[in-house]
Amino acid sequence: MECIHCGSSSGPNASKGPPLAWCERFVEKLASRGFRDMEIIGGEPMHRPEVLLPLIRTATTAGLAARFTSNGFWGENRSVCDRSIKQLSDAGLKILSLSIDKLHTANVSHQSFLNIAHSFREAGFPFALRIYGFEGEWEEVDLVKEIKAVCAGHISVFTSRILPIGRAHENAARLKLDGWEIPEEDNHPCHSVLFPVVDADQYWYLCANGPTQGHNSPLCIGKMSGPDKFDEMLDRQYHYPIFRAIRTIGPLGMLELLGVPTGVGEKHNSVCDLCLHRLFSPNNTPRLRALFADEDISKSLSRHFQSQPCSMCGASSWWQRSGEWLCSDCYLNSFEI
User: Fold this and answer.
1) Closest Cα to residue 147, out of 117, 115, 125?
2) In this structure, are 129 and 66 located in the same domain?
3) CB-based contact 207:192 (threshold 8 Å)
4) Backbone phi and psi for residue 49, each to the nearest 5 degrees, phi listed first
5) 141 with 192, same domain?
6) Which tens digits make up the pLDDT trace of 154-175?
């Protein structure tokens, strides 16, 4: 199955990824650097339970809150569904998100989702269950209401627009992604580059959308040859000039530095759309690399990047949350599952 809206362009021909032991060591390194949670994305993680369950166990043992998103295909058979819920619970899963909208129910029956809801209830609500779907004509309102009734309040629902990322970008017309205007006040730092993203081929990206651009994109900072290189790669990310620019002046500010029309007033489907398809376009990529290789610009970003003290501990701040400047440790510790 290759969903037309898939942001990660996943499908049956995708790479199987590194060995399980490699992934488990990577998870342990995440915990050692103070990260609080881990999300496994696909495609569909439940297609590979022999990898998913050990990674959840490793994360739980290391003190990370493990979560993943599923299309719910495994709920079709009730006995399989009951067994899967128990296995996920025993492994220590903290959050399961179900993708429920018409793009997913075209391939997965309503009964699959209802079976998951009943198994979840009968297991005593062993972890947090979320419904995530696309709004507008893609919503499955009646099905979601039925699931909420089964779970009696032990569920939360989130909706969003479809972002034209990965395969969704290729199918934007088919998906009717009309876009909206980017206002002037949308010139803000991007918070999506906080956590490292490593794809199945072990390339390290600044954000979850990075793999859709390929490893020659400025959003890729290199290939991690092994988990023991984790600290080196994380430090490289934090000191990477393009990373600092995204975190301080945002995509619109970077376009202004390049002297490229910012797109304010034009229609885009998100700041991610503006960043991936305007800022990091093939024409701009060599100019970006040259610009941020400039020592004066790099120094200016460094000063701006650490210009505010952390409001919690006084150290140099790297992130902003709810109007407060926070250092890396305090920012990470501010998240609660």
Assistant:
1) 117
2) yes
3) yes
4) -60, -25
5) no
6) 888 888 777 777 788 788 788 8
